[in-house]
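Our consortium's second objective concerns turning raw sequence data into structural hypotheses that experimental partners can test. To show how far this objective has progressed, the report includes one record in full. It was chosen at random from the queue rather than selected for favorable results. The single chain below, 215 residues long, was entered without modification.
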Amino acid sequence: MIIEARFNGPPGSGNGGWSAGVFATAYGGQRPVEVTLRQPPPLDTPLTLAGDQVHDPAGEVVAQLRPAEHLDDVVPPVDLATARAASAAYPGLTEHPFPGCYVCGPQRVDGLRIFPGRLPDGRTAAQFSVPAQVTTATVWAALDCPGGWAVIEAGRPYVLGRIAVRIEALPRPGDECVVTGAVVEAVGRKAMVRTSLYGPDGALLGRARATWIAR
């Protein structure tokens, strides 16, 4: 496995959702999987899956994997117009800890450009224009940042620590989808969030729960 440089999150490391999706695909295909990142995923580096661990060339553990359980809760959807309005007010457009992030970075014209804005009830919502190439990792990536932006505040960046995903179906290239996120609990430096991805017809395509860590 190699996380190509263009799939970065913070500078010099892989986007957490994309990287976790690559690891989960190698581990168990489409079944629900939980991935715990033990260190920032290195870019353009051969990584090896051995049992339930991903190792770098030096033998250091990059990620721990296991089957995911209890992925039943979803974040309610919004219509596309509401998602677009929320994206237009995305705080990362003016202040972003990692503006080159493949998923949510405003500097990336070649990224997913998912811009989660806050709704009045505290949830996030964003439109997601599905790229021409869609893989399982694409869905994991789409389910990553919208949860983080439910807790990220100005001057207090968070990074992904753990994510579990259940995919119902892959979106089709060119689809205009909606992603929603919500905080479940925030204690100290840790925040538990959930995200859900919906297709153009409102069908649930995927759901995730994740733990984000304040830096």
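The partners drew two points from this record. The first strand starts at residue 33 and ends at 37. Strands lie at 33-37, 48-50, 53-55, 61-67, 117-118, 124-129, 158-167, 176-187, 190-198, 204-214. Both points have been shared with the crystallography group to help prioritize constructs.
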